[in-house]
Amino acid sequence: DAKEQGVDIRRYVPFIQMKAKERLKLENDLRRALEREEFFLLYQPQVQLATKELVGMEALLRWQHPKRGLVSPAEFIPIAEECGLIVPIGDWVLRTACRQNKEWQLAGYRPICVSVNLSMRQFLQPNLAGKIGGFLKRIGLDPRYVDLEITESMTMDKEKAFEQLTRLKELGVYISIDDFGTGYSSLHYLKNMPIDRLKIDRSFVAEVMEDSNNAAIVSTITSMAHHLKLKVTAEGVENEEQLQFLRQQRCHEAQGYFFSKPIRAQEFERLFLKPTIF
Ligand code: C2E
Ligand code: CA
Ligand code: CA
Ligand code: CA
Hints:
Residues 23-276 form the EAL domain. This is Diguanylate cyclase (GGDEF)-like protein. By secondary structure, the chain is an alpha/beta fold. Helix content is 46%, strand content 19%. Strands 1-2-4-5-6-7-8-9 form an eight-stranded mixed barrel, surrounded by four helices. β6 (174-180), α7 (187-192) and β7 (197-200) form a beta-alpha-beta unit. One calcium ion (CA) binds next to β6. Ligand C2E is lined by residues 44, 60-61, 72-74, 77, 90, 93, 117-119, 178-179, 202, 236-238, 256-257, 262.
């Protein structure tokens, strides 16, 4: 046991306390980050494989902390989710991404869809569809250019999820299941939920050429998506070989460092919104 191994638990108490304190500090900083305009969005292109055309972009949140520098969403989203701040932050993400998309349409670029990640708490808001509908109306963006990414775990409460998704579909936005294959889901659920697209998790795509199990999973998800008349997008595509494999599987779209890392709006406009680049 701990004592036998010479471990004294008391040595760890200040460390544990510091962790809690630091977390609280981060939470307080997060509380002010919106008004201090410390958030910004990066965009990553989504490419249609058959035509090599840009069809969409995923908005990815970044927090420029005055002292810590860039904080990863993997670090602060769970905190924001826990303390409820994810709702106002998520609203900001939605409005900012949709405004950007509208701005580019007004500038005369060919319209593309903007994908926005929703967290559990956001997804469970009672009047989510009404709120998003309000945003879109004010911004003047057609809902068909908005894609909401949710994860499988958000649909654990089947009835509630079905109701939310139905209202969102009535609004006219697109719905994607993010990180598909990593969470809970059943074929029954896929058949019955009003969704449009599966995004194959990047962990399967990453080793698709080396690991035959991953190849089988990607191939199965893609084929199933075809049969269920769902769109399918591969995440985390980093090289030509993976792309070739995905093309063979007739995967519809791909996203990943092979095309571009997530980048600032200005750079995205310069690199991707000008006449055909691929
Ligand atoms: P995600 O939604 O699965 O986003 C994809 C993540 O994979 C992004 O990390 C992206 O930068 C990274 N990625 C894209 N292509 C590649 C690739 O080819 N190779 C590798 N290794 N990575 C790639 P990021 O931006 O750090 O975001 C992490 C997660 O944070 C996201 O995972 C999402 O769950 C969450 N997140 C980001 N922005 C938001 C947001 O606005 N709201 C919410 N609720 N969650 C967000
Ligand atoms: Ca996502
Ligand atoms: Ca994902
Ligand atoms: Ca992910």
